From TrEMBL:
The keyword Repeat does not apply. It comes from the Eukaryota. One of its GO terms (molecular function) is ATP binding. It comes from Hirondellea gigas. This is Kinesin-like protein. The keyword Nucleotide-binding applies.
Length: 766
């Protein structure tokens, strides 16, 4: 795609005056009406003029005479647009740039259900409906397949930001949240984020698939989760090429593919405490993104609030920095979403005005490709050095063995080396045979020689193993570096390549036409026709009336726009006020608790310990300092225990001897409990019941004998209906029953021998 490259560079020269500045490219895509919307009788309020890049929205609230709201973008795609079309026209040039060492970012912005995920991922199984991400995979790997004299290294990461927490989607069951860190040379990065080296298109597709699975797993409600979280797929493309100076030059392009959270307002219902925190966090990143865009476009603000959210910090370069950026604003066509659609379009037209300063990342410090190349070179030199040493050795000790000239290529040397080791092995075997067959040698001598041979053999074996290990390492590293035509099976033929070029040219043509049209319109509006000559006064009047009408309509539209913006602003402000009020309430409560329930001294201590953690962006309490002033902890709150020279605590000589001699805990410094098992002195078998005086026993017996035939029995087993009834029956005849006692046994079974102690009074079932 040389044409496009040329075109891009031309444009850059024109646009940025050599500085390479360019604007964020904004395209709008409207999805088709869905079945639900048609069934509900919603009308379409969006009109799109694709060749001119214009969207018109006729608000459902406005009068039919009101002019529609008009927005112009770099490109617009209506409900008939195909994924391929978007890719060829809009995204392909960006991915081409990434392959040449630029950073690139694609944002999908819009209300939930308008096609953000459809645009970014699409339906992977259907080639026609594949989104940007899979199409970019194809693009990247076919580019590599066609390249020559270049080495590539492709890495992929996938992360998600949900409620201001970053989660690695490529780690299974990742409960751990990742931190953002900053380095002065390479900027903001996510600490411990997994990067997978992808050697083929299937591998990178697998990476995406795994990430998507993990995203779904973490969510209790997938729909809600995906509409409230940002997913970022990151592809890093590093390439190296032999420069004219004879050295390898590395270029690195990083591509962020961002599926943003739904832009709709989050309802903050009954929020307090944790709920409130949650509600304010959900769209924090998105509103911070809006603030960053506003600040960038404003031109007056010197401070851009990148640090307000994780998303804006991570994608700082994409907005106003070193990156080529495209924003896709997704909208729905129906009257039902009219307000949201307008909000999205306004947001998007603001983003159009952001200037970026993309540049090719030449020889970056953190290039992994360079590391790999260095590693390979080092390992290879290790391998060849061994060979050289051996050769020298051989020349000194065994001049008989002929050594061939030896290639200068290290690979040849490696091969030779292997042959060489094999030869040595055979020689040893021969020696052994020779020794065994030698009849003249004494047995001891034989054994000695044999063992020395075995030792040598062992040594040789370990050498071979080492060698193989090194070689395997080289092979592994080399397999990760991709070269044109070799590693990639996906070999597109020349025809297809031409076809792609044709499509690219066509897309380019379309783009240029649109730009031309837009420029023309702008100029037409601006030039004053007064300068032109008119043949008659009448003609002049007509022309000027026409112009006036046009201008008046424009004025009306702008006035309406102001009103709309004010409305939007007011609703935004009430929303923020609401949040602020809630937060103030929360703060007042906390202050109340502090004032009334925390002693002033404690409060002071806590305040002196509190500090703001820049990395995690929250307040933390410093550890209570241990140790005395000399240790650096001048404001120590915990005193340190004095140390003894010999043991943990000061112990006198006397105490030591006593402790050694006796078990008296009095002299033990620690572990004063005696933990030896103490067997019980008596067992239950020895136990004998108490003696009961015969008189008492007789009295008891008399008391337990029922009078008359009244037998009351109570079943105490829990919940037994029978027993309840029995109890009631017993209770029902209280008059006759003077002494309501129960007996364990009927009177006839009275024991002859009195028990030593009273048996339990039987609560026995009937
Ligand atoms: P979002 O990610 O913005 O919430 P989705 O991408 O999930 O929205 O899209 C919602 C539905 O609309 C999906 O079923 C998707 O297939 C469909 N859809 C979105 N855009 C298009 C389009 N341009 N053409 C056809 N179907 C679309
Ligand atoms: Mg989605």
């Amino acid at each position: 795609s040389n044409v496009m490259v040329q075109y891009e560079e031309d444009k850059m020269k024109k646009g940025g005056g050599g500085s390479g500045a360019e604007n964020v490219k904004v395209v709008v895509r409207c999805r088709p009406m869905n079945r639900q919307e048609t069934a509900d009788g919603n009308s379409r309020v969006v009109e799109m003029d694709v060749p001119r890049g214009v969207v018109e929205v006729r608000s459902s609230k406005s009068l039919p005479t009101d002019p529609p709201k008009i927005f112009t973008f770099d490109a617009v795609y209506d409900w008939n647009s195909k994924q391929d079309e978007l890719y060829d026209e809009t995204f392909r040039p960006l991915i081409d740039s990434v392959l040449r060492g630029f950073n690139g970012t694609i944002f999908a912005y819009g209300q939930t259900g308008t096609g953000k995920t459809y645009t970014m991922e699409g339906i992977a199984s259907d080639p026609e409906q594949r989104g940007v991400i899979p199409n970019a995979f194809n693009h990247i790997f076919s580019h590599i397949a066609r390249s020559s004299n270049q080495q590539f290294l492709i890495r992929a990461s996938y992360l998600e930001i949900y409620q201001e927490e970053i989660r690695d989607l490529l780690v299974k069951d990742s409960k751990k949240y990742l931190e953002l860190k900053e380095r002065p040379d390479t900027g903001v990065y996510v600490k411990d984020l997994q990067q997978f080296v992808c050697k083929s298109i299937t591998e990178i597709q697998h990476v995406m698939h795994v990430g998507n699975q993990n995203r779904a797993v973490g969510a209790t409600n997938m729909n809600q989760h995906s509409s409230r979280s940002h997913a970022i797929f990151i592809v890093t493309v590093e390439s190296s090429e032999l420069g004219q100076d004879g050295a390898q030059h590395v270029k690195a392009g990083k591509m962020n593919l961002v599926d943003l959270a739904g832009s709709e307002r989050q309802a903050k219902t009954g929020s307090s405490g944790e709920r409130l925190k949650e509600a304010t966090k959900i769209n924090l990143s998105l509103s911070a993104l809006g603030n960053v865009i506003s600040a960038l476009v404003d031109g007056k603000s010197s401070h851009i609030p990148y640090r307000d959210s994780k998303l804006t910090r991570l994608l700082q370069d994409s907005l106003g920095g070193n990156s080529k950026t495209i924003m896709v604003a997704n909208i729905g066509p129906s009257s039902f979403n009219c307000d949201e659609t307008l909000v999205t379009l306004r947001y998007a037209s603001r983003a159009k005005k952001i200037h970026n300063k993309p540049k090719i990342n030449q020889d970056p410090k953190d290039a992994i490709l360079r590391e790999y190349q260095d590693d390979i070179a080092r390992l290879k030199s290790q391998l060849s050095q061994k060979l050289v040493k051996k050769k020298k050795k051989r020349k000194g000790h065994a001049p008989g063995v002929d050594s061939d000239g030896g290639g200068t290529e290290s690979e040849e040397e490696l091969a030779e080396d292997e042959v060489d080791l094999e030869q040595q092995k055979q020689q040893l075997e021969q020696q052994r045979q020779h020794i065994l067959n030698d009849q003249h040698m004494i047995e001891e001598e034989k054994q000695r020689l044999l063992s020395s041979v075995t030792d040598k053999e062992r040594e040789l074996n370990t050498k071979v193993a080492e060698h193989q290990q090194l070689e395997a390492q080289v092979v592994l590293l080399e397999s990760r570096l991709l070269c044109g035509g070799k590693n990639i099976i996906d070999h597109t033929n020349e025809q297809q390549r031409e076809l792609e070029q044709q499509r690219g040219k066509l897309a380019d043509q379309k783009r240029r036409e649109r730009e031309m049209l837009q420029r023309l319109e702008k100029e037409e509006d601006n030039t004053c026709e007064i300068a032109s000559t008119f043949t008659s006064l009448q003609q002049e009047v007509e022309a000027k009336t026409h112009k006036l009408k046009k201008m008046f309509a424009r004025l009306q539209a702008v006035k309406q726009e102001i009103v709309d913006l004010q409305d939007e602003f007011i609703s935004d402000r009430t929303d923020m006020q609401q949040t602020q009020e809630d937060l103030t309430k929360e703060l007042k409560l906390k202050t109340l608790i502090i004032e009334n329930f925390i002693p002033p001294d404690e409060k002071k201590k806590i305040i002196s310990r509190a500090y703001f953690d820049e990395d995690e962006e929250c307040w933390k309490l410093r550890e209570l300092m241990r140790g005395n002033g000399s240790n650096g902890g001048s404001n120590s709150s915990v005193l340190k225990r004095p140390v003894s020279s010999s043991s943990r605590r000061p112990v006198s000589e006397y105490a030591k001897t006593q402790a050694a001699l006796h078990h008296n805990p009095r002299f033990k410094g620690e572990n004063i409990m005696l933990l030896d098992l103490d067997p019980p002195a008596r067992t239950t078998r020895d136990w004998e019941g108490p003696e009961v005086a015969p008189q008492v026993a007789a009295a008891l017996q008399a008391a337990l004998t029922p009078i008359g035939d009244e037998v009351i029995s109570i079943d105490a087993s829990f919940g037994s209906l029978k027993s309840v009834r029995g109890a009631r029956v017993a209770g029902a005849r209280p008059k006759r029953n003077r002494r309501p006692v129960s007996s364990q046994r009927p009177p006839s079974h009275q024991p002859d021998v009195l028990p030593y102690y009273p048996k339990s009074r039987g609560l026995v079932p009937k």
